[in-house]
Automatic annotation (TrEMBL):
This is Chlorophyll a-b binding protein, chloroplastic. Belongs to the ELIP/psbS family. Chlorophyll b binds at residue 108. It is a multi-pass membrane protein. Chlorophyll a 5 binds at residue 234. The keyword Transit peptide applies. GO terms for molecular function: chlorophyll binding; metal ion binding. InterPro entries: Chloro_AB-bd_pln (IPR001344), Chloroa_b-bind (IPR022796). It comes from Tripterygium wilfordii (Thunder God vine). It is found in: Plastid, Chloroplast thylakoid membrane. One of its GO terms (biological process) is photosynthesis, light harvesting. GO terms for cellular component: chloroplast thylakoid membrane; photosystem I; photosystem II. Pfam families: Chloroa_b-bind (PF00504). Chlorophyll a 1 binds at residues 103, 106, 229.
């Protein structure tokens, strides 16, 4: 079992997710060596021009120089990669993959929390950090029951996500999803961890289409949505940090906006 898991991890580290840039660099180098005329020469000029185009930096107006601005281990293959890793946390490819998944999960929770805070206070008039203690709060369970249930359910879901990270798609079998008659709706239809897609996770077809009942991902749409999502996720995490500081001063987001 341990050997199989280790093999899965190594296969994951050798995936196209981490090797894509090396293949692109090899292609660019090969194209640059081509001599001759016609279409091949034109392709060579076009590819070389694209190769020297500077990557966007997380510091406005700065285009390169050293691992602080443009780390070697960030090659632009990740959505929203602007070279930000001043502590070098992503030097190890395995850790880089894990940190990206963690950023994605935390960002999604933050986006849901920001919407919940605004809508909740606009609806009830109660500050979000006082909502649980408000006299009119709906609390059919004791705090201990609520905490125990949350730990049980979240522990189950998070443990499955942890196992699936090291052994991709191992959790999409029928026994792992007892609420579904088939694992088809819960399988990783896009082939990428963190972006399951499929009938269940993309019912409106934002990143794919349904063809005779089969979900077909649209790579171009998915790439655009991944970039948009990670940008919104980062903004939401920064917003939540601001909300916490405001709460420490007894202020709310709506109050800070004068609403």
């Amino acid at each position: 079992m341990a050997a199989a898991t280790s093999g899965a991890v190594l296969n994951g580290l050798g995936s196209s997710f981490l090797r894509g840039a090396r293949r692109s660099q090899a292609f660019l180098a090969g194209a640059a060596r081509v001599d001759g005329g016609g279409a091949i020469a034109g392709t060579r000029k076009l590819v070389v021009a694209a190769a020297v185009q500077p990557k966007k930096s997380w510091i406005p107006g700065v285009r390169g120089g050293g691992n602080l601005i443009d780390p070697d281990w960030l090659d632009g293959t990740l959505p929203g990669d602007y070279g930000f890793d001043p502590l070098g946390l992503g030097k190890d490819p395995a850790f880089l993959k894990w940190y990206r998944e963690a950023e994605l999960i935390h960002g999604r929770w933050a986006m849901a929390a920001v919407v919940g805070i605004f809508v909740g206070q606009a609806w009830s008039g109660i500050p979000w950090f006082e909502a649980g203690a408000a006299p009119g709060a709906v609390a059919p369970f004791s705090f201990g029951s609520l905490l125990g249930t949350q730990l049980l359910l979240m522990g189950w879901v998070e443990s499955k996500r942890w196992v699936d990270f090291f052994n991709p798609e191992s959790q999409s079998v029928e026994w792992a999803t007892p609420w579904s008659r088939t694992a088809e709706n819960f399988s990783n239809s896009t082939g990428e961890q963190g972006y399951p897609g499929g009938k269940f996770f993309d019912p409106l077809g934002f990143a794919g289409t349904l063809n005779n009942g089969e979900y077909i991902p649209d790579t171009e749409k998915l790439e655009r949505l991944k970039l948009a999502e990670i940008k919104h996720a980062r903004l939401a995490m920064v917003a939540m940090l601001i909300f916490y500081f405001e709460a420490g001063q007894g202020k709310t987001p709506l109050g800070a906006l004068g609403l």
